[in-house]
Amino acid sequence: MGKQEVRKWWHWYAPEDTPEERKLVMKLDLLIVPYAFVLYWVKYIDQTNINNAYVSGLSDDLHFHGNQLVQFQTIFVVGNVLGLLPFAYLFPKVPMHYLVPTLDLGWGIFNLLQYRANSYSEIMAYRFMVSIFEASYFPGVHFVLGSWYKSDEIGRRGGIFYVGLTLGTLTAGLLQAAASKHLDGVNGLAGWRWMFIITSVITLPLAFVGYVLWPGTPDKPNRLLLSEREIEVAKARLERHGAQLKALPFTWKRLVRIFTGWRFYVLVIFDIFFFNTSANTAAFLLWIKSLHRFDIPTINNLGTIAPALGIFYVLFINFGSDLFLGRAGAITLASVWNGIGLTILTIWDVPESAKWFAFSTNYAGVAVSSVLYGWANIILRHNVEERALTLILMTAIATSTNAWIPLLVFPTVEAPRFPKGYPYALANVVCLIVMAQVVRIIYNREEYVFQYTLGDNELLIS
Fold first, then answer.
1. Which terms are listed as keywords in the entry (predicted)?
2. What angle is formed at CA 234 by the lines to CA 205 and CA 103, rounded to 5 degrees?
3. In 3-state terms, what secondary structure has residue 348?
4. Residue 120 C-alpha from the chain's centroid
């Protein structure tokens, strides 16, 4: 495509949008973005609360030892991969306004059950079920975003949605600090057990809200809040930009075309590099604990520094990708900042202040996610089945690498130094930057063919 037009951050709508389209976009923003953001916020409270609970008494009460923390994280990844696979078929077939809230309900129930665990194996089983239900939420939201928004609209919405990750990680630390300080021993329950109760009380009601508010997709919309005219306008504005909205049956011919094209393989490799560019999720907390200077509430509070900075990283990178950086530029900038921190951690023998700085850059790598998945939505917009299948499989394959690689490079017994882990993550950062340029070149070449050689109709058929 040609050079991206630079727009100011406050230019929310595209210049060519009609008043009717602008009204629709605002309504979609109010229905999709706040709910996706809040639910992702809660999802990450429920996902990362285990790290805070681990340093707040869970490891002693349930007799964790050796590498059981990283094994615990691995079983979560295994559940994620298994939970993703059915949705390559289900996303285009099942109304998303039923599917997404039901997933929330499932993970909320098993998150609650963790409070009663009395052994390593019991909490491992609950955690596995949490991961099964959480697995497809992220690609599911991006599937919905790609079903309603144009290419220059996805990044900002995806960025706001993705702030839920950093805010959830931050909130989990603050909640655990408060639970350890004020609820430890109340009704005979340890502070870390109260953490699971509190987060479930927040999680479960949101499922029922989602059945009403979540708009689904234009092909299978939630008609409680969207009129026929609004659905027609939504379909027309996307079809003008080459998007296919109607799901077609999977056929062997269509599957062969998907698996013999460049898009699937390039996006899978791209995503694998991204999934391996971050340090162990508990590394910062484990390092703070290793200083032996802080009590448990203070450790949890200090652990919120990195995700708090991550809110800025995510918003700046994702807004920038839509408005002035471009997608390859946004990924490169975020990766360079993340790489600086990983370089310091790889060296390790540096002043303590440098390590505080290094851990504080880590969430710049996280900011890449919505840019990458938004770009994938744009690349795959010409075929809804290919988009669903690729979004799911790229996530499942990339996630699966986190099931076994951390056992090799981030074993708990090497915390917080991780002499293999930080160099490994840094190498993936370099590969991600290179891959961003590869995708940019291939995609621009294909879009040139689309616009000037084949024409809309022929490419949509292919």
1. Membrane, Transmembrane, Transmembrane helix, Transport
2. 25
3. coil
4. 27
DSSP assignment letter at 221: B
Burial, 13: exposed, middle or buried (Cβ in 10 Å; 0-12, 13-18, 19+)? Answer: middle
Rounded CA separation 130/144 (Å): 22
Q: Domain 19-461 falls in which CATH fold?
A: Growth Hormone; Chain: A; (1.20.1250)
pTM: 0.73
Number of helices (H), then strands (E), in the chain:
22, 0
Given CA atoms 231, 232, 234, 235 in this order, what sign does their dihedral have? positive
Buried b (16+ CB within 10 A) or exposed e, 173-182: bbbbbbbbee
Query: 221 has which bridge partners?
Result: 216
**Rounded CA separation 74/71 (Å):** 5
- Residues 377 and 91: their CA atoms lie apart, in Å, by 14
Return the CA Rg of the chain: 22
344: nearest Cα among 283, 298, 398, 300: 283
